Amino acid sequence: MSNRVISPVNRREFLEQVGRMSLGTAVAAGLAGATAAGSEPQPSKPWQPVSDRKVRVGIVGYGVCQFGAAFGFQDHPNVEIVAVSDLIPERCRALMKACRCGQSYESLEVLVQDPKIEAVFVATDAPSHPRHCREVLHHGKHVMSAVPAAFGSIEEAEQLLETVQKTGLKYMMAETSCYREDCYAMRQIYRAGGFGRLVYSEGEYYHSSPKPIDSFKGWRIGLPPLWYPTHSTAYYIGVTGKRFTSVSCIGFNAGFPENRPGANRYNNPFSDEVALFQTSEGGSSRMLMCKGVQGYVVEQGRVFGEKGRMDGTRYQGAVKMLPDLARPALPPKVPAGGHGGSHGHLTDEFITSILKDRQPLVNIYEALALTVPGIIAHQSALKGGETLKVPQYNPPQA
Ligand SMILES: NC(=O)c1ccc[n+]([C@@H]2O[C@H](COP(=O)([O-])OP(=O)(O)OC[C@H]3O[C@@H](n4cnc5c(N)ncnc54)[C@H](O)[C@@H]3O)[C@@H](O)[C@H]2O)c1
Predict the structure, then answer these.
(1) Which residues contact 5 (CB under 8 A, 6 or more apart)?
(2) What are the distances in angstroms from CA 358 to CA 69, 353, 397?
(3) Strand (E) positions, the chain?
């Protein structure tokens, strides 16, 4: 089986596969003109503004990944960046420059007091996400959070859910895999019935890191791998909107110094975790986060259904007519950005959800369904693979 993700080199192969499914579909989907080597499926329609209003945004966090400026908020025609913040003054100045913003605050806690700001992008360290997002929501502002929604604590995850429910404000988690080209296409095919129920799915985040990547106050040192599950779990939850119900997980120790007894704050012996989940459709799903596989860095997944399958570059199935598989058009100056061209789409989805007063794709329920199963998987790994139930977070029925 091919494990390749869609890359500039193999996009053509993807398009050929899509084209093979149904020529009529490809034309209907607006993909017909997109078969030049190296091109992606092109949106069938240009970007259409839904409003001429500008959402007044605050941005917090310009750490090792410089995420605060990486999602194109500063280029979105429906956004005015009111202020930015990072605790470290030189990062704060750099974020001001990158966002072309003249106002900054010394911390998120001060920024949220600015009454002009109506939405905040929280791109701070992972352990602080639930606390920071609740702080934003408590001040009456919508929030988009970098992943994960919560960091190892079910209690914090549930407090966040409660705050979102109580305030009625928009919450979105910026899971990049959800807007990768392949995952986006899988979601459209799933919704159109092109896979049927998923018998089995796989999601993978390999990030070879014999030395931990730098981070604020060292939160990545000895990090339990599946506390950071969302790039993988997107290849089931982000495709189907269904749930994991139970898990058995196996941990592996690649012998890194950070995983020696007492060497990390999490008391975590594992560099790698591989989990097998049961799904609410009655299938199974293998999700992993591995740091110990030498030299390997990739985020990818594949799905296998009763009526079809797709492995990132290949769809094979029984469908006759497919919906549009190309990601929606972006505003002219918003770059698609990193992580498979997902950044711009996440920003546009968050801003559009505010403008249209609707739920964003990765709302609090989907965010917890992507995040919490990894926390339980780590508990299972610590118990030698014992099967554990996964708590369920579903939106209230309309
Ligand atoms: N593909 C992806 O979705 C992806 C990839 C990389 C990183 N991330 C996520 O992005 C986030 C940022 O990653 P990073 O590596 O840059 O993090 P980091 O730990 O290097 O930096 C966090 C920054 O937040 C700032 N900060 C913390 N508390 C603050 C507060 N109260 N007020 C103002 N600033 C505050 C710190 O000063 C620091 O500069 C992380 O949560 C990470 O999980 C996601």
Answers:
(1) 180, 182, 298, 299, 300, 312, 313, 340
(2) 25, 5, 15
(3) 55-60, 79-85, 104-105, 119-122, 142-145, 171-173, 198-207, 244-252, 272-279, 284-290, 297-305, 308-310, 315-317, 388-389
> 119 Cβ partners below 8 Å, 6+ apart?
55, 56, 57, 58, 141, 142, 143, 144, 170, 350, 351, 354
The CA distances from residue 301 to 23, 31, 42, 234, 312, in Å, are: 26, 23, 22, 8, 6
Mean of pLDDT values over 189-200: 97
Q: How far apart are the CA of 332 and the centre of ligand 1, in A?
A: 27
pLDDT digits (tens, 9 = 90+) for 205-245: 999 998 888 999 999 999 999 999 999 999 999 999 999 99
Distance from the CA of 108 to the center of ligand 1, in angstroms?
Answer: 12
**Minimum-distance ligand 1 atom for the alpha carbon of 65:** 16
